């Protein structure tokens, strides 16, 4: 998974706050969702439970992993919001990396869910939030490859 792993320089944490190696075999051939969101954002707080249900239902069968990239104003807010999320996260301390990723993927508003090919790092879908919340709630056409 060198593609996505290179984006993060090893700053991804699991729920136990342990560093995760995205080059590990368990992440091979995965679709990686970059989830830009924040505790203070009402649309985010509305979408996150929907995304959690989608993830729980489809993560294994569709080879799907999510990395939460927080726009929270402080680490306590990040911790409170991340508590219910069942996926990985960019270390909150990595504010520069968060800004770099937001710029790279043209994130101008949140919530934003961008799907990447985990192995190559190529963008698959920039509007995954709309697909999950409105257009394809069952994920029948996941990962919604752009043509």
UniProtKB/TrEMBL annotation:
<dbReference type="GO" id="GO:0005634">
    <property type="term" value="C:nucleus"/>
</dbReference>
<dbReference type="InterPro" id="IPR012336">
    <property type="entry name" value="Thioredoxin-like_fold"/>
</dbReference>
<dbReference type="InterPro" id="IPR036249">
    <property type="entry name" value="Thioredoxin-like_sf"/>
</dbReference>
<dbReference type="Pfam" id="PF13905">
    <property type="entry name" value="Thioredoxin_8"/>
</dbReference>
<feature type="domain" description="Thioredoxin">
    <location>
        <begin position="1"/>
        <end position="134"/>
    </location>
</feature>
<dbReference type="GO" id="GO:0030178">
    <property type="term" value="P:negative regulation of Wnt signaling pathway"/>
</dbReference>
<dbReference type="GO" id="GO:0031397">
    <property type="term" value="P:negative regulation of protein ubiquitination"/>
</dbReference>
<dbReference type="InterPro" id="IPR013766">
    <property type="entry name" value="Thioredoxin_domain"/>
</dbReference>
<dbReference type="GO" id="GO:0004791">
    <property type="term" value="F:thioredoxin-disulfide reductase (NADPH) activity"/>
</dbReference>
<protein>
    <recommendedName>
        <fullName>Thioredoxin domain-containing protein</fullName>
    </recommendedName>
</protein>
């Amino acid at each position: 998974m060198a593609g996505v792993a290179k984006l993060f320089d090893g700053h991804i944490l699991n729920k136990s706050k342990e560093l995760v190696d995205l080059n590990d075999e368990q992440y091979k051939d995965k679709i990686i969702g970059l989830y830009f969101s924040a505790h203070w954002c009402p649309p985010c707080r509305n979408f996150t439970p929907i995304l959690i249900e989608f993830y729980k239902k489809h993560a294994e069968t569709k080879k799907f992993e999510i990395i939460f990239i927080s726009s929270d104003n402080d680490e306590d807010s990040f911790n409170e919001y991340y508590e219910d999320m069942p996926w990985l996260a960019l270390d909150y301390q990595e504010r520069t990396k968060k800004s770099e990723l937001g710029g790279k993927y043209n994130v101008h508003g949140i919530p934003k869910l961008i799907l990447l090919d985990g192995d190559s790092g190529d963008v698959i879908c920039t509007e995954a939030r709309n697909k999950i919340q409105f257009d394809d709630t069952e994920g029948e056409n996941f990962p919604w490859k752009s043509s």
